[in-house]
């Protein structure tokens, strides 16, 4: 091999090495400038590449290198909406790859008292805001098609943990909740509801009262049994949680804490007041958890018609089959409340 050819080969190898280093630097070395180990960025639906540049620029050290990779991998012409995970030390190749992997959001909710509260909770986790979610769930066509009302639509939220893509639309979120609701109401649960002479929505409405009445899951079947006994006998439910809900609804203040229902509260004019209205309220007063729903479907069989909070077993209740015994229990509880100075 002559000297000239050897020189050319060495120069070529050197250039290749330099080019390789440049490619490695531009493609694979760190191009992030955030201190956290990782963070998420959200690309809204309808975004173009210029929007993406604005979103990622606070976290990218060299935007020119990022732009080059986006162009080489055609990302600048195929922007995807969603929630994406960026990790500290990522190079441009990894950054663009991450912006193509939509990471689901885990959503959990329970014990929300109104659709507005649920929508606010969910709207903080996915792209649609609370107003868009409320509009979707209260759509008249959707409600009519599924035998729901504005008051009963809260029934379809079965408390659980769910995964959604951040850019899921309000309508798709709604439809997924309906799908999960139908899965929950399997043949066994439907048969038990039918045996009680109740629809799934009615079961959940009663379960919401049971849920609010006691936090003790082992007591819920007994509470459910007492309420069902009242319904069978045509007695008003007289559930204090329904009065509390009516007061909050009247005041449009669901943040207030009401520890004591006063005698004057029992006459509040509201369809949710089960002291003055027979039967169930028009919809749930909260999202009951599954133990409360199953308590209604599997109630304890007994003769109790009355119950009030126990002063001896905190969190539990004292039950009675007669009004006379109930008065004894109720007076004991009222005396205890007065002793603690609880006014409201």
Write up this protein.
A hairpin with a 7-residue loop joins strand 5 and strand 6. The protein is mainly alpha-helical. Helix 6 crosses helix 8 and helix 10 crosses helix 11 (220-233). Mean pLDDT is 91; it is low at 15-21. It is built from 14 helices and six strands. The chain has three domains: 26-98, Dna Ligase, domain 1; 105-184, no CATH class; 197-340, no CATH class. The strands form three sheets. It has a two-stranded antiparallel sheet with strand order 1-2. A two-stranded antiparallel sheet has the order 3-4. Strands 5-6 form a two-stranded antiparallel ribbon.
Quick overview:
This protein is mostly helical and 344 residues long.
Describe the secondary structure blueprint for this structure:
Blueprint: H1 3-28, E1 38-43, H2 49-56, H3 63-72, E2 82-87, H4 92-98, E3 105-108, H5 115-123, H6 130-137, H7 140-145, E4 161-164, H8 170-184, H9 187-196, H10 200-213, H11 220-233, H12 240-251, H13 290-297, E5 306-309, E6 317-320, H14 323-340
* Beginning-to-end CA distance, first to last residue: 101 Å
Largest sheet data: 2 strands, antiparallel
The fraction of residues in strands falls at: 5-15%
Proportion of residues in helical segments: 40-55%
Helix/strand-derived category reads mainly alpha
Discrete helix count: 14
Give, in spatial order, the strands making up the sheet with the most strands: 1-2
The total tally of domains equals 3
Per DSSP E runs of 2 or more residues, the count of β-strands stands at: 6
Poorly predicted runs: 15-21
In N-to-C order, the SSE pattern is: HEHHEHEHHHEHHHHHHEEH
């Amino acid at each position: 091999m002559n000297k000239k050819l050897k020189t050319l080969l060495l120069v070529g190898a050197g250039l290749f090495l330099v080019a390789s280093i440049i490619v490695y630097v531009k493609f694979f070395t760190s191009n992030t400038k955030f201190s956290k180990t990782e963070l998420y960025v959200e690309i809204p639906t309808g975004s173009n590449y210029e929007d993406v540049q604005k979103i990622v620029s606070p976290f990218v050290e060299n935007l020119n290198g990022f732009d080059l990779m986006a162009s080489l991998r055609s990302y600048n012409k195929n922007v995807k909406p969603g929630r994406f995970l960026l990790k500290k030390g990522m190079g441009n190749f990894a950054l663009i790859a991450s912006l193509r992997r939509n990471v689901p959001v885990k959503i959990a909710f329970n014990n929300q008292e109104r659709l507005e509260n649920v929508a606010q909770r969910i709207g903080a986790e996915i792209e649609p805001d609370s107003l868009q979610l409320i509009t979707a769930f209260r759509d008249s066509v959707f409600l009519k098609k599924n035998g729901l009302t504005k008051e009963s639509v809260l029934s379809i939220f079965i408390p659980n943990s769910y995964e959604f893509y951040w850019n899921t639309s309000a309508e798709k979120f709604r439809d997924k909740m309906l799908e999960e609701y139908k899965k929950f109401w399997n043949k066994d649960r439907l048969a038990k509801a039918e045996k009680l002479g109740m629809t799934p929505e009615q079961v959940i409405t009663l379960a919401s009262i049971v849920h609010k009445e006691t936090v003790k899951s082992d007591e819920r079947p007994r509470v459910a049994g007492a309420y069902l006994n009242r319904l069978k006998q045509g007695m008003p439910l007289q559930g204090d949680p329904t009065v509390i809900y009516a007061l909050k609804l009247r005041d449009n203040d669901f943040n207030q804490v009401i520890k004591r229902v006063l005698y004057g509260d029992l006459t509040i004019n509201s369809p949710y007041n089960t002291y003055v209205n027979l039967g169930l309220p028009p919809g749930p007063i909260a999202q009951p958890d599954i133990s409360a729903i199953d308590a209604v479907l599997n109630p304890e069989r007994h003769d109790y018609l009355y119950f009030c909070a126990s002063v001896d077993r905190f969190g539990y209740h004292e039950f009675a089959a007669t009004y006379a015994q109930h008065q004894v229990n109720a007076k004991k509880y009222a005396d205890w409340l007065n002793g603690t100075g609880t006014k409201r």
